[in-house]
Automatic annotation (TrEMBL), chain A:
Keyword terms, alphabetized: ATP-binding, Cell membrane, Membrane, Nucleotide-binding, Transport
Keyword Hydrolase on entry: no
Principal subcellular localisation of the protein: membrane
Protein name: ABC transporter ATP-binding protein
CDD domains, alphabetized: ABC_NikE_OppD_transporters
PANTHER family the UniProt entry points to: DIPEPTIDE TRANSPORT ATP-BINDING PROTEIN DPPD, OLIGOPEPTIDE TRANSPORT ATP-BINDING PROTEIN APPD
Presence of the UniProt keyword ATP-binding in the record: yes
Subcellular location: Cell inner membrane
Protein family according to the UniProt entry: Belongs to the ABC transporter superfamily.
Domain of life according to the entry: Bacteria
From TrEMBL, chain B:
Entries under Pfam families matching the protein: BPD_transp_1, BPD_transp_1_N
Protein name per Swiss-Prot or TrEMBL: ABC transporter permease
Entry membrane topology: Multi-pass membrane protein
Source lineage: Bacteria, Pseudomonadati, Pseudomonadota, Alphaproteobacteria, Rhodobacterales
Provenance organism: Ruegeria aquimaris
Alphabetized InterPro entries for the sequence: BPD_transp_1_N (IPR045621), MetI-like (IPR000515), MetI-like_sf (IPR035906)
Bilayer-crossing regions: 9-27, 99-122, 134-157, 177-197, 235-261, 281-307
Protein family according to the UniProt entry: Belongs to the binding-protein-dependent transport system permease family.
Gene3D superfamilies xrefs: MetI-like
Residue span(s) of domain ABC transmembrane type-1: 95-300
Length: 540, 313
């Protein structure tokens, strides 16, 4: 006899409020999760994958109402369960881990207490026994020194450790179903690999059914047994891992997979233009020494040397805390370097005082990661685009005309200048940010994780735009990213940073095919989904 | 932590010194000769000069300041011109009513305001939320003396349940002490309840949207405990800040309440001292108030480290 499914979602429809852009958040979706199986729900933002998870857990926001269908947890419909019954089921039969381990844990409570809280709610164990169980499960998820860590606060742990705590909390009562909502998206690639391994190990050892929600096809390739592809609230493709990844039937799935950048760098001609920017011995030290306070010093960048030629893209890759953004911010003089020279057209701007720095500011422009927060929500796109040129003395009419041209250059209508940022999608906003950077005719464009917050299909378009612009304006581009797939596709040369130090540099192709440093090898190995073909690398 | 406390305590010294200089100069530079006031309307120049010499008022200002400061450090705040008593004793006698009133008011305020604000946040948009916020607007707009007289009229004169005014020392019986403080502390607390309830609502609302609240729900935690354990504790830092500041404002603001309810506290003493140009008393009271403010600020900052383990100095 076949085992009962852990989860059966049947014809689930969740309605959106009346004024939303479509009637239903998810529409008529069905899939199952068997015991000991990992089912990945993959889709871009707004596809309804998180809504599905919340519906199962009974955690939908009040505005969203399931209108038809059932979500059967071991045969019991959670959509029909009372609030009390749902509380009994959560933590015991179904559990959930979330995207942001930084914010998903209560910052003012010790992690051990947060794990034992689950036991306190659902069992009669004594405080001492709860603590013992908490330590045991922490050991099971391979946290170092659980006896000591049980009394730590979340902020004392790293992102990966926090996610392990979340997993420990979810698994402490051996639920039949584990829902993981983008659990590795906020983590570094090496940490991501470890967490994926842990989820797999736990699921195998305990026979848990896992519903794994992600936007990342690399992660899907790494972990899935079966795959549900969602778009605009509907299931477009549903099947076994190999069927979907190797022989995608639907055009949407094919498009998504083609948009995932390949890990194999294309051949690129070496650039021979003049150096636009040269950095030598750049140091940035954070922290202070003082009377009665302990010395806390962080070397965010140590003796960094780099140069970028005109028309060239230099990538800086590394994990969080590697100092890649610090270097970018020093070059743009958003922060002051502790020492070193930053030479722009032969002028050392590293130590120029603010007053003398102003004329050079326009030469270096930045596009930031989060397009939702880097445009002032109360100013029109036009106002944002002309602010810098007008500050540098361009007449308003002239600046507006340039702004219109730039909007068209980045693929938007010139009429959109009257509108406000919230009227645009994330990808459109990032295009606007690029237009804003170009408005003062810079020589150096810094893209600081500029495509990291975007969906893959949008990401591919924005990368193409950046490459076009570099070519057209002969820009020197400094491309900061943690994503090795993106770096492979756009960078001419690469710098690999770790803890403020450059550990390796060279032409992108060489770094990928023949990495010299252990850390580079570690990063490349950790990139998920290396055995599946993505993007343009046909049967590599 | 200890070094932080030490640093903060040392940092209060220059603040207090500055206040001392200010207080000293303020009164020396106001027109009107204290010696003439003490001597009375019928004194001749020789008598005034004698008093001036006795008080040290004929010496240069810096010398006067040093002498004054030295005395302060030894707990000698001088003799009141008006009451002809040691200012230290005078203040000690008046401290109890003021502290009783302030403490009782702040306890009452916190007990009412924090639950109300939390409830309003939890039921955001409901009639309960609107009711609580409506009350809070009303609380802001009614002056203390209006509320005070209304309460006296209703509960003391019409119903006869509570004494009209006056104070009974705690040593003469807790019952009588509490009975006489009920009306004044209720009157005083209204505006602070309004203020702190609003603050609590905003702060809890923000926290309720946080991921860890969702995590707590995903664990199967009950709504009450989600609120108590996860929401309110995380919302506590801004709430405790306004509670502390309210307490400081409260102590400074007892002047009006003590007059309305005729409580022999520091507020009333301040009014009397100002009217009588009683310099030593005014000086001592201002210094005392400033010291209390500095102390409260220190307590607020220290409480942060207890409430939020991420805050370390």
């Amino acid at each position: 006899m076949e085992q009962q499914n852990v989860l059966e979602v049947r014809n689930l429809t969740v309605s959106l409020p009346k004024n939303a852009d479509r009637p239903n958040a998810v529409e008529n979706i069905s899939f199952t999760v068997a015991p000991g199986e990992i089912v990945c729900v993959v889709g871009e933002s707004g596809s309804g994958k998180s809504v599905t998870a919340s519906a199962v857990m009974g955690l939908l926001p009040a505005a969203l109402k399931p209108s038809t269908g059932e979500t059967l947890l071991q045969g019991e419909d959670t959509l029909q369960a009372s609030a009390n019954r749902l509380r009994d089921l959560r933590g015991t039969r179904m559990a959930m881990i979330f995207q942001e381990p930084m914010t998903a844990l209560n910052p003012v409570t010790r992690v051990g207490e947060q794990i034992s809280e689950v036991l306190e709610i659902h069992t009669d164990l004594s405080a001492a026994d709860r603590r013992k169980r908490a330590i045991e499960i922490m050991e099971a998820v391979h946290l170092p020194d659980p006896e000591k860590m049980v009394d730590s606060f979340p902020h004392q742990l790293s992102g990966g450790q926090r996610q392990r705590i979340m997993i420990a909390m979810a698994l402490v009562l051996d639920p039949a179903l584990l829902i993981a909502d983008e659990p590795t998206t906020a983590l570094d690639v090496t940490t991501q690999a470890q967490i994926l391994k842990l989820v797999k190990e736990m699921q195998e050892r305990r026979g848990t059914g896992v519903l794994f929600i992600t936007h990342d096809f690399g992660v899907v390739a790494e972990i899935a047994d079966r795959i549900v592809v969602m778009q605009n609230g509907r299931v477009v493709e549903y099947g076994d891992r190999d069927d979907v990844l190797r022989r995608p039937k639907e055009p949407y799935t094919q498009m998504l997979m083609a948009s995932v950048p390949s890990m194999t760098p294309p051949d690129r001609m070496p650039r021979t233009g003049k150096n636009a920017i040269e950095v030598s011995n750049l140091n940035k030290i954070y922290g202070r020494t003082g009377w009665l306070s302990k010395d806390r010093i962080v070397h965010a960048a140590s003796d960094v040397d780099l140069h970028v030629r005109r028309g060239e893209t230099l990538g800086i890759v590394g994990e969080s805390g590697s100092g890649k953004s610090t270097v970018a911010r020093c070059i743009a003089r958003l922060i002051d370097p502790t020492s070193g020279t930053i030479s722009l057209h032969g002028t050392d701007i590293g130590t120029l005082p603010q007053s003398k720095l102003r004329p050079h500011r326009r030469k270096v422009q930045i596009v930031f990661q989060d397009p939702y927060r880097s445009l002032n929500p109360r100013r029109t796109i036009g106002q944002s685009l002309i602010e810098a040129p007008v500050n540098f003395g361009v007449a308003i009419d002239q600046a507006l005309k340039t702004a219109r041209d730039l909007m068209e250059l980045v693929g938007l209508s010139g009429d959109a200048l009257e509108r406000y940022p919230h009227q645009f999608s994330g990808g459109q906003r990032q295009r606007i940010c690029i237009a804003r950077a170009l408005a003062v005719e810079p020589d150096v464009l810094i893209a600081d994780e500029a495509v990291s917050a975007l969906d893959v299909s949008v990401q591919a378009q924005v990368l193409e735009l950046l490459d076009d612009i570099r070519e057209r304006y002969d820009l020197a581009m400094l491309f900061i990213t943690h994503d090795l797939r993106v770096a492979a596709q756009i960078c001419d040369r690469l710098i690999v940073m770790k803890k403020g130090v450059v550990v390796e540099q060279g032409p992108t192709k060489d770094v990928y095919s023949n990495p010299q440093h252990d850390y580079t090898r570690l990063l490349l190995d950790a990139a998920p989904g290396r055995d599946v073909t993505f993007g343009s690398d046909t049967a590599a | 932590m200890l070094s932080y406390l030490l640093r903060r305590l040392i940092a209060t010294i220059p603040v207090m010194l500055l206040v001392a200089v200010f207080v000293f100069m303020l009164l020396r530079l106001t027109p009107g000769d204290p010696a003439a006031i003490i001597a009375g309307d019928y004194a001749n120049d020789a008598q005034i000069a004698e008093i001036r010499a006795k008080l040290g008022l004929d010496k240069p200002l810096p010398v006067q300041f040093m002498v004054w400061l030295g005395n302060m450090f030894q707990g000698d705040f001088g003799e009141s011109f008006f009451y002809k008593k040691q200012v230290g004793e005078l203040i000690a006698a008046r401290l109890e009513p003021t502290l009783s009133l302030s403490l009782l008011t702040i306890i009452l305020t916190v007990c009412i305001a924090v639950p109300l604000g939390t409830l309003a946040a939890y039921r955001q948009g409901s009639w309960l939320d609107r009711g609580i916020m409506g009350f809070s607007v009303l609380g802001f707009s009614l002056p203390v003396f209006v509320i005070g007289y209304m309460l006296i009229y209703l509960f003391s004169i019409k119903l006869g349940w509570l004494p009209v005014q006056g104070y009974q020392r705690i040593s003469d019986g807790v019952g009588g002490w509490l009975l006489r403080l009920i009306l004044p502390s209720v009157a005083l607390s209204v505006i602070f309840v309004a203020f702190i309830a609003r603050m609590t609502r905003t702060s809890v609302l923000e926290v309720l949207g946080e991921d860890y609240v969702r995590t707590a729900r995903a664990k199967g935690q009950t709504e009450t405990k989600v609120l108590m354990r996860h929401a309110v504790r995380n919302a506590a830092v801004p709430i405790v800040t306004v509670i502390g500041l309210s307490f400081a404002i409260l102590i400074g603001g007892v002047v009006v309440t003590e007059s309305v309810f005729n409580l022999p506290g520091l507020g009333l003493l301040t009014v009397e001292a100002v009217l009588a140009r009683d310099f030593p008393t005014i000086q001592a009271v201002i210094l005392l108030f400033s010291f209390i403010y500095v102390l409260i600020n220190l307590l607020i900052d220290v409480s942060y480290t207890v409430l939020d383990p991420r805050i370390r100095y």
